[in-house]
Amino acid sequence: MAKTKKQRSRQKYNYSKNRKRQWKKSKKKAKIGNKSIEAAWDERKSVSQNLRDMGLSHDVNKTIPLPKTRDIMPKVYQLKDEEMETDAPLKKSKRRKKLHVMKQLEMEANTPQEGTPRLSSEMVRYCTYMMDKHGED
Hints:
mainly alpha
């Protein structure tokens, strides 16, 4: 496929950008919406390690894998596959888990919340005025 002239030309250095400010911004700590997760967060660990220690999932596909077709196939065909597979022993982690974070998140999710209107207050006032004036037509 053909490229435009702009796509073919090489990039020019942007002198108006402040590189020092961009670097500091990239190194800044990310904001986490939940206080319990933020309190248990360890800066030295990766995102997946932090979430694993808290009992949360980083990748749902790895946490809850879909069954493969060979698992669904009859036992006759599985005999050949079992000879080829080698089961590696699972590693036991000696890390202290932060399961209190998961329990606190579950408690927050189970608390009932008041339903907030999805319309602005002015729109709600206008709708109630029209319903009072015209009825429920």
